[in-house]
Amino acid sequence: MATQEEFHARLMQGQNADNLPLWEWNELRNELTRERRDMVLTQRQLEVAELSARPRLKERLHQAEERVSILHKAWAACQAEGNLRPAAMAVVIAERIEFLTRELEDVENQIAVMRGWMAELPEGAAQARELAQKDVDYKVERVRGMKDAREWELEWSIKVSTMSDSQVALNASQGGGEHRS
Questions:
Q1: Residue 28 burial (CB < 10 Å; 0-12/13-18/19+)?
Q2: What are φ and ψ of residue 114, in 5° steps?
Q3: From CA 126, how far away is CA 138, in angstroms rounded?
Q4: 73/176 Cα distance (integer angstroms)
Q5: Which of 31, 37, 40 is nearest to 72 (CA)?
Q6: What's the pLDDT score for residue 93?
Q7: Fewer CB under 10 Å: which end of the chain, C or N?
Q8: What secondary structure letter does DSSP report for 75?
Q9: What is the pLDDT of residues 40-78, one digit of tens each?
Q10: What residue ranges do the domains of the chain occupy?
């Protein structure tokens, strides 16, 4: 199974100055995806938070929204300046979708194994069950984040597959696509 580092190593393998804009575009896109996922998680936490925790979460959400906005602008500028070709962008996106799909399946399998193990715990193992449930809850959130990221990648895959080179440049000059918060 390929790790994120292996994915980046393959992307950088044999890079020359002409390919660096594609690498930079992909790195910014990945960072934007991570920040968007963190922002969504903070929004979800805010929805269920106790009253005393809300001011801290609102501040965290505001900071996350600012980071997403800045990254989105940098990513769009990179796309506009990089003279990127839709075919090259599509390959990068397809590899990312493949990576996310494998990771998603792996984490979902881990959850199933953990739940099976929890079902076999004796009644008196409350502490072990509680710790295992926390791990499952964490992994369930990871799955939600990976599904969100994969959905965003699929949307971009469709969008890029219908673009010509001139449309990529025009789209980037107009902000690089939808920015959802």
A1: buried
A2: -65, -40
A3: 18
A4: 8
A5: 31
A6: 86
A7: N
A8: H
A9: 888 888 888 888 888 999 999 999 999 999 988 888 888
A10: 4-173
Report d(CA 28, CA 23) in Å as an integer.
Answer: 9
Q: What is the three-state SS of 1-67? A: CCCHHHHHHHHHCCCCCCCHHHHHHHHHHHHHHHHHHHHHHHHHHHHHCCHHHHHHHHHHHHHHHHH
Q: How far is CA 79 from CA 69, 71, 73, in A?
A: 15, 12, 10
Type of residue at 65: E
Backbone angles phi, psi at 125, to 5 degrees: -95, 50
CB 153 within 8 A of CB 97: yes
Helix (H, G, I), strand (E, B) or coil at 123: coil
Q: At a CB cut-off of 8 Å and minimum separation 6, what does 33 contact? A: 149, 152, 153
pLDDT in tens, 124-160: 999 999 999 999 999 998 898 889 888 888 888 887 7
**Model pTM?**
0.62
The closest of 179, 154, 152, 140 to 44, measured between CA atoms, is: 140
**CB 30, CB 100: distance < 8 Å:** no
Neighbours of 99 (CB within 10 A): 20
